């Protein structure tokens, strides 16, 4: 007695188990799978929006490339530490001013951090770095160069993978620590203590302070944010290209695939999505805190 | 119903007379202690028994009569039966033996006049029977001593009147009297609890009735009795002399002890540094330990109970052996100028050790085993330790003129015992290798700090934190400055780890070597202190004195007579002897298991692998 067989007995079948019916236990009538829902709650991606979001990932990649190219310059003696120090100080001040102006636009009179606290933080950073730089300089003397490079590469990769792209403002512990570890490893290879100090200050700015500014910018001025991302990517490729063309080509390829190819894949592959939902799913409890009050 | 009669071997050939002994309460058995011969006056017998009962505290009574008729003595049957009326008992045993036969016959007269004959022995049943009590082992050897005598068949054995069987268990009276059944029950047994087992009561009875055995055949009293000592009382001159000398000896020891305790309790010695030192130096510990021993020995009361006696004896013997070995050592030391050779060898040896350490440090400061050290830290640590060694060498050179004198007077301490000499040696080794101990502590502390810091900063690296309240790792959002400084410190500590770890490893190994040597010394001191030499000697030479149980052997199994078994004492096993009678001491045993020790070494905790158990706390 299947769903398409001869007409059944007079009493229709009901989908209950507590009643003894004339049908076998595994009988279902025509309404089999009528409660099946396919691809419910599917997000529809639009290509260019995804590309814009992916631009942030590319931007971070280029940041790392800029940092590496700065290090390459310092190591070859093309860039003196004093120049780097002064320029990073200038950039820091500019960035701070920009940050403060953006903050004032959003909420005035509600300063979570006073200027004094910021100054205090900056003083701690600088003094610690300056104090530790002689120690840091000799830290990896006995370790071979290949090991140092390998460690830094792994750490930078960890930084990129664990970066909180959705909300970069409170920096993620692992990503920031990995980036700093890599920068210490690289900075200890430089010829002098001042070089180490300059490199570390630059690393701090690039990896710790820059994402905060980006977050603020993304919130307030999205169009400028996109333009900035593009600018950073171009700068990264250019900077790396002046040192090693091969690296620049690789970076360009990576950027292209991350920002252009991967979103295409994402959008294209959506049509192969085949999720099914039905009453057999586990119940999800959505807590609505407003109901409690 | 089986009636067991414990019959002493010495009375097997005794003349006819009265059986004196004890009925064991709670069990169907009787212990025969002695035979009092004819002629006697019943009143005097009763008086004698009461006297002995008062002296010894054992409930003696007249058990029955014994008849071994010699040629010419006949017609005792009615006389023996009449005796039962003179000594009124619940049961009256009439044991008969004929010369030339091995078996006894026994008739039991109950108070109401009924008599019962023993049943004939059912051989097969007895052979298959295996009775296991708590301590006895019933071992039935295949009739070792079956004498080929005429077997008389008595048909009257077929009739069963009451079905009461009698087993005669023969025992050697002297051995059982001196023996002690293990496990020893100290203290007065509570009468409300179960009565002790039959065997234990039998042993206690025989051991307690020593007053009965003082009457020997040379006494001019009205009574003549047969027991193990009836051929003449044994006495040993040495034992008597020792007993006489022990009282003034004990008094002397207690007087010396009181002076020593007074010196020790002087206020000057309760200052903290001295007290701390005296708890660490093993010589002082050994001294206090021997004082305790002497205190046990010098108590004026004689030893109450077997355990106390054994402990005192063990202490005396181990002390004497100790002193003898010490004297041997002294004799060896003080002849042929050994002391000065030792002293002259000591300072160069210490120098040599210091030079080796210096070379080791120089090697560490270079590139040891091809490992890459952090140069700056390496230099700092190396120079620090080198300076220490330099200080130590100057100290040794300062002390060198006094070494010979110190050794000479130190050797005198061996007259107090070998244990003192060994403890002194251990202390001297500890003092001479004090610098190694210092290095180990520095290295360990540095390493421990580093490991602790690294583990905490590693948690910060991953964005987690240790929750002390819940004793688990939780996630935590750190501030920017915390993250920054944490990462810097983590990097620094990580790269400096190999250097510190290597120094720690080297000094830990050195320290372990010294600890091992000291441990061997302590173990041997402990062994001399605690090994129960007296008990072991007793087990070897007089094994019947320490009994674990008994064995039975079938002596005679003729039909028509009762079953005769020979009870032999099963001595205690050697290992049990040592375990039971070991003097409790500050046993020196490893505090941690291997796993825990390795873990402590890995983390950098200071290790003190040998623990001294004090008698008070544990």
What does this protein look like?
- The complex is a heterodimer of chains A (293) and B (618).
- Chain A has 8 helices and 2 strands; from the N terminus they run E-H-H-H-H-H-H-H-H-E.
- By secondary structure, chain A is mainly α.
- The mean pLDDT of chain A is 87.
- By secondary structure, chain B is α/β, with parallel strands linked by helices.
- Chain B has 17 helices and 16 strands.
- In chain B, strands 1, 2, 3, 4, 5, 6, 7, 8, 9, 10, 13 and 14 form a 12-stranded mixed sheet that branches.
- In chain B, a hairpin with a 6-residue loop joins strand 5 and strand 6.
- Chain B is elongated and about 115 Å long.
- The C terminus of chain B is likely disordered.
- At the A-B interface, helix 3 and helix 5 of A face helix 13 and helix 14 of B.
Query: How many β-strand stretches of chain B?
Result: 16
Strand fraction band of chain B?
5-15%
Strand percentage of chain A, roughly? under 5%
Strand order of the largest sheet of chain A: 1-2
Name the structural class of chain A.
Answer: mainly alpha
**First-residue to last-residue Cα separation of chain A:** 55 Å
Structural shape of chain B: elongated
Distance between termini of chain B? 50 Å
- Count of DSSP strands of chain A: 2
Low-confidence stretches of chain B: 119-162, 614-618
As an assembly, this protein is heterodimer
Query: What characterizes the major β-sheet of chain B?
Result: 12 strands, mixed
The biggest beta sheet of chain A reads: 2 strands, antiparallel
What class do helices, strands and sheet pairing of chain B give?
alpha/beta
Task: Fill in the keyword field for this structure.
heterodimer, A: 293 residues, mainly alpha, 2 strands, 63% helix, B: 618 residues, alpha/beta, twelve-stranded mixed sheet, 16 strands, 15% strand
């Amino acid at each position: 007695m299947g769903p398409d067989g001869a007409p059944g007995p007079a009493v229709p079948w009901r989908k209950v188990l507590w009643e003894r019916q004339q049908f076998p236990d595994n009988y279902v009538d025509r309404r089999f799978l009528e409660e099946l829902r396919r691809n419910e709650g599917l997000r529809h991606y639009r290509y260019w929006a995804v590309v814009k979001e992916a631009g942030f990932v590319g931007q971070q990649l280029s940041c790392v490339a800029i940092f590496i190219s700065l290090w390459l310059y310092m190591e070859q003696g093309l860039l003196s530490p004093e120049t780097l120090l002064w320029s990073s100080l200038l950039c820091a001040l500019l960035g701070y001013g920009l940050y403060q102006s953006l903050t004032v636009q959003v909420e005035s009179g509600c300063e979570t951090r006073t200027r004094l606290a910021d100054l205090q933080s900056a003083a701690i950073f600088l003094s610690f770095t300056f104090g530790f730089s002689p120690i840091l300089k000799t830290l990896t003397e006995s370790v071979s160069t290949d090991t140092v490079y390998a460690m830094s590469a792994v750490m930078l990769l960890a930084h990129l993978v664990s970066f909180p792209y959705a909300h970069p403002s409170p920096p993620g512990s692992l990503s920031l620590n990995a980036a700093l570890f890599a920068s210490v490893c690289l900075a200890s290879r430089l010829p002098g203590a001042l070089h180490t100090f300059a490199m570390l200050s630059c690393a701090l700015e690039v990896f710790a302070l820059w994402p905060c500014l980006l977050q603020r910018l993304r919130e307030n001025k999205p169009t400028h944010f996109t333009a900035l991302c593009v600018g950073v990517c171009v700068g990264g490729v250019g900077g790396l290209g002046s040192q090693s063309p091969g690296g620049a080509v690789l970076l360009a390829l990576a950027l292209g695939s991350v920002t252009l190819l991967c979103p295409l894949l994402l959008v294209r592959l959506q049509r192969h999505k085949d999720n099914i939902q039905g009453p057999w799913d586990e119940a999800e409890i959505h807590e609505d805190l407003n109901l409690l009050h | 119903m089986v009636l067991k009669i414990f019959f002493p071997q010495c009375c097997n050939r005794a003349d006819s007379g009265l059986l004196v002994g004890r009925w064991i309460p709670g069990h169907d058995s009787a212990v025969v202690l002695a035979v009092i011969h004819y002629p006697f006056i019943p009143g005097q017998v009763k008086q004698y028994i009461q006297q002995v009962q008062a002296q010894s505290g054992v409930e003696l009574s007249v058990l029955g009569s014994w008849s071994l008729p010699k040629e010419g003595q006949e017609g005792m049957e009615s006389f023996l039966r009449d005796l039962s009326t003179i000594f009124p008992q619940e049961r009256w045993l009439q044991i008969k033996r004929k010369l030339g036969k091995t078996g006894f016959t026994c008739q039991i007269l109950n108070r109401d006049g009924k008599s019962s004959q023993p049943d004939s022995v059912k051989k097969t049943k007895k052979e298959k029977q295996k009775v296991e009590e708590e301590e006895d082992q019933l071992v039935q050897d295949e009739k070792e001593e079956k004498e080929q005598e005429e077997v008389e068949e008595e048909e009257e054995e077929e009739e069963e009147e009451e079905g009461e069987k009698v087993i005669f268990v023969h025992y050697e009276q002297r051995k059982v009297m001196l023996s002690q059944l293990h496990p020893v029950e100290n203290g007065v047994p509570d009468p409300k609890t179960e009565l002790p087992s039959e065997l234990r009561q039998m042993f206690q009875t025989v051991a307690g009735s020593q007053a009965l055995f003082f009457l020997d055949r040379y006494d001019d009293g009205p009574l003549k009795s047969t027991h193990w000592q009836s051929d003449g009382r044994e006495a040993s001159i040495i034992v008597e002399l020792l007993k006489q000398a022990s009282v003034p000896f004990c008094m002397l020891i207690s007087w010396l002890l009181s002076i020593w305790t007074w010196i020790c309790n002087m206020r000057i010695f309760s200052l903290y540094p001295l007290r701390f030192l005296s708890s660490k130096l093993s010589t002082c510990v050994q001294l206090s330990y021997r004082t305790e021993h002497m205190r046990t020995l010098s108590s004026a009361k004689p030893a109450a109970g077997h355990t106390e006696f054994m402990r005192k004896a063990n202490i005396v013997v181990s002390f004497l052996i100790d002193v003898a070995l010490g004297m041997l050592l002294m004799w060896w030391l003080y002849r042929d100028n050994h002391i000065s050779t030792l002293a002259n060898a000591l300072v160069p040896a210490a120098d040599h050790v210091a030079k080796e350490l210096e070379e080791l440090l120089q090697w560490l400061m270079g590139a040891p085993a091809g490992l890459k050290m952090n140069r700056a830290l390496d230099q700092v640590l190396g120079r620090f330790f080198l300076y220490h060694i330099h200080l130590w060498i100057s100290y040794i050179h300062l002390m060198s003129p006094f070494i010979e004198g110190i050794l000479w007077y130190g050797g005198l301490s061996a007259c107090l015992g070998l244990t003192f000499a060994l403890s002194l040696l251990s202390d001297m080794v500890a003092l001479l290798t004090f610098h190694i101990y210092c290095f180990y502590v520095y290295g360990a502390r540095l390493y421990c700090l580093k490991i602790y810091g690294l583990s905490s900063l590693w948690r910060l690296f991953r964005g987690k934190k240790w929750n002390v309240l819940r004793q688990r790792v939780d996630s935590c959002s750190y501030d920017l400055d915390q993250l920054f400084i944490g990462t810097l410190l983590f990097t620094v500590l990580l790269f400096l780890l190999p250097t510190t770890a290597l120094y720690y490893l080297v000094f830990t190994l050195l320290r372990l070597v010294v600890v091992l040597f000291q441990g061997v010394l302590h173990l041997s001191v402990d062994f001399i202190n605690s090994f129960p030499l007296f008990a072991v000697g007793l087990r070897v030479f007089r094994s019947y004195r320490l009994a674990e149980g008994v064995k039975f052997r079938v002596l005679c199994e003729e039909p028509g007579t009762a079953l005769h078994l020979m009870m032999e004492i099963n001595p205690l096993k050697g290992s049990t002897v040592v375990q039971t009678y070991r003097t409790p001491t500050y046993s020196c045993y490893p505090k941690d298991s291997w796993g825990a020790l390795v873990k402590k070494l890995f983390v950098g905790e200071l290790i003190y692998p040998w623990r001294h158990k004090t008698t008070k706390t544990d």
